[in-house]
């Protein structure tokens, strides 16, 4: 009986240690989540303004004169896949892996793998991997994001790719996010309503549209990267919250078992003493 009490006591210490770790990681993830969420929301206003301006200019431009609006003659595509470099973030990475596995990526297609988890997952795959950006760890490196945007713009302009896809995680709320395959290029000419009085543009819409495309690409890619960063910290915060709750429940269960075992040991000792006194 004494051995059972000692064994339960050791398990309680292990659970208490796990509780301290998970609760601390939850606190850290919550702080990071708030910081990145504030950054995403602050950038959202600017991003929406760029999208509205770009949509207006693109709607007045002539798509057939700009190959950014049409599929070119290239035979391969480019896929940019964003995952995390750290673990303990629930199903965040697995959702990305599942979507990538369901996506038709051919061996001749080029891929940019951002995050150590996705790099390790597909390190032996037959895809043509572009290692220029393999040191990516977080969206804080804005220079790297700019380099990726410039690479996408130049490569598509030179007709290396027929399409450019960005596989990332869309933020819906703190508890819900979804892996998404977003078509970056070719651009879509979206007209929400008929323009009765076209705006006067100087220079002409075609020239202005060509000048806006690099800014539009950088804005779009950076916004998606921010969403992925927020989703990663939200997933990690939720995972650590669940782990902390499980540790609390296990601690309560072990405490009950410990008290029962200790009470049984005390009862047995009293019984033995009384039995010895009566003999």
Write a concise keyword list for the protein shown above.
single chain; 279 residues; alpha/beta; Pyruvate Kinase, Chain: A, domain 1; five-stranded mixed β-sheet; 5 helices; elongated
What is the rounded distance between the termini? 24 Å
Largest sheet: 5 strands, mixed
Q: What is the typical, i.e. mean, pLDDT?
A: 85
How much of the polypeptide forms β-strand, as a percent range?
A: 5-15%
Which class best fits the helix and strand makeup?
Answer: alpha/beta
CATH class of the domain at 61-236: Alpha Beta
Tell me the number of helical segments per DSSP (H or I, 4 or more residues long).
5
User: How do the strands line up in the largest sheet?
Assistant: 3-2-1-4-5
Identify the CATH homologous superfamily of the domain at 61-236: ATP synthase, F1 complex, gamma subunit
Number of DSSP-assigned strands: 5
Query: How is the CATH topology of the domain at 61-236 named?
Result: Pyruvate Kinase, Chain: A, domain 1
Low-confidence regions = none
Shape: elongated
What proportion of the residues is helical, as a percent range? 55-70%
> Rg from C-alpha positions?
28 Å
**Secondary-structure element sequence?**
HEHEHEHEEH
Corresponding CATH architecture of the domain at 61-236: 3-Layer(aba) Sandwich
């Amino acid at each position: 009986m004494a051995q059972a009490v000692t064994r339960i006591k050791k398990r309680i210490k292990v659970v208490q240690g796990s509780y301290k770790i998970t609760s601390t990681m939850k606190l850290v993830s919550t702080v990071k989540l708030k910081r990145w969420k504030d950054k995403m929301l602050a950038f959202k206003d600017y991003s929406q303004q760029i999208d509205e301006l770009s949509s207006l200019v693109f709607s007045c431009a002539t798509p057939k004169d700009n190959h950014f609006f049409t599929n070119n003659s290239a035979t391969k595509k480019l896929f940019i896949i964003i995952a995390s470099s750290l673990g303990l973030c629930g199903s965040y990475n697995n959702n990305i892996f599942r979507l990538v596995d369901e996506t038709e990526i051919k061996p001749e297609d080029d891929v940019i793998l951002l995050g150590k988890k996705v790099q390790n997952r597909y390190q032996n795959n037959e895809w043509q991997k572009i290692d220029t950006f393999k040191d990516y760890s977080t969206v804080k490196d804005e220079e790297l994001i700019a380099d990726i945007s410039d690479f996408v713009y130049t490569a598509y302009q030179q007709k290396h790719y027929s399409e450019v896809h960005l596989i990332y995680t869309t933020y819906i709320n703190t508890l819900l996010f979804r892996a998404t395959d977003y078509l970056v290029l070719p651009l879509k000419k979206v007209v929400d309503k008929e323009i009765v009085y076209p705006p006067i543009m100087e220079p002409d819409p075609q020239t202005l549209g060509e000048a806006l495309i690099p800014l539009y690409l950088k804005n779009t890619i950076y916004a998606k990267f921010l969403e992925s960063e927020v989703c990663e910290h939200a997933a990690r915060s939720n995972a650590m919250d669940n782990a902390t709750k499980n540790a609390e429940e296990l601690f309560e269960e072990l405490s009950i078992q410990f008290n029962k075992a200790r009470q049984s040991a005390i009862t047995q000792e009293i019984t033995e003493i009384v039995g010895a006194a009566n003999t």
